[in-house]
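## retry 2 of 3
previous attempt timed out at serialization; input unchanged, resubmitting
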Amino acid sequence: MHIEVNMKKWLRSLSGRQIRLGMSAGISAILFLALTGVIALLAGRQAEQHIDQRWDSEGGVAQVSCFFSPNAGVTQDSISTFEHTLDSALKEASIEQDSPNPGARLWADAYSADGTITLSTDKGSVEADALGIGGDFFLFHQLQLISGSYFSGNDLMQDYVILDRDAAWQLFGSTDVAGMYVNIAGRPHIVIGVVERPAGKLYEAGGLDGIRVYVSLETLTTYGKSNGINHFEIVMPNPVKQYALNYVRENLGSPEKEVEVLENSSRYQIGKRLRLLLDFGTRSMNGKAIIYPYWENVARGYEDILALLTLFQMIFLVYPSGVLLVWIVIRWKNKKWTARTVLGAVQDKLQRAAEKRRAQRRSGEEKSWLDEDPSFSEKEQKRRDREERRQQKQEARRRRRLEKEFQTESKKSGKKK
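## retry succeeded, writing output
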């Protein structure tokens, strides 16, 4: 009740301008919090950028991506050499797998090449954009399955194909076609699954604007038109900050001008978003002959969106912070207290609180004694009587001693006279 009265009194003391400033600052703070939630939501929806969280929920790994120019000369052999070197480096660094699961791995990687390929069935043929994959590509890119399943670039059988919905309809007139065959350059390949092609403005602008199929790198290289391996991704242990990023950059064996290496795990953090704002104008300049795949174009698009939202977020934070700072300064200048009065008031409150606790403790102790022994009053009275008699005896002995000392001093004084 007392607080409510003081609040009403304080509100009546405010001017119209102060109320408007307070309300606008409150709205700005609410917008800041709302943008914080929107940023977290948008960043969290980019599943392809958070493989590290699925691989190790405790945060001991990092996801790193590499994009190559056609002149980088990356081959399956060079990637195999990198993989063997990585195993040795982790062993030397005493980073070992401690999972009880015998199939557990310390790292996983994937590589891919883009190109085109022609597929045909009895119902027709399709020339489609294709990705020739190797390694655990679908671990990093978990497309929505309509039917069937994924395949791995490490499988012994390399004649698998995954179609998107449009390709399945054009080749078979259905999406339930897992297990059926398509011909690629006269060679039968098994349709192992059908996926939903991601849709949206960013995906279409990023290069996913037509039929897309997924085949093994061997199939694309042998029977289609391949641009060579131009994407590599890995999730691996990251015992210290940027360990994984630096290791991949130094050991992949590609000239710096022909490759771009980035750490996906941290790309949407506040520091990276602020740095992106500082690089505004030069961000889109790229002197490397690198064509990004659709998923990286989408990720970069979200980086720009999140950077813009971060700018508004900072504006909505600065305004209420400034209003609060001005209010504190005004209150400080008009203060009617000093450090000494505040300290005295605090000490007084602490002392009163301590006395209150002591009184409550004594009251609790007396209550417990009474509860335990109904004859407490009689026993306590006897104890007090004994204590009073003891004090009386002590006082009598003290008086006798003083009288004796006085008599002794008197006799000594008479002899001297």
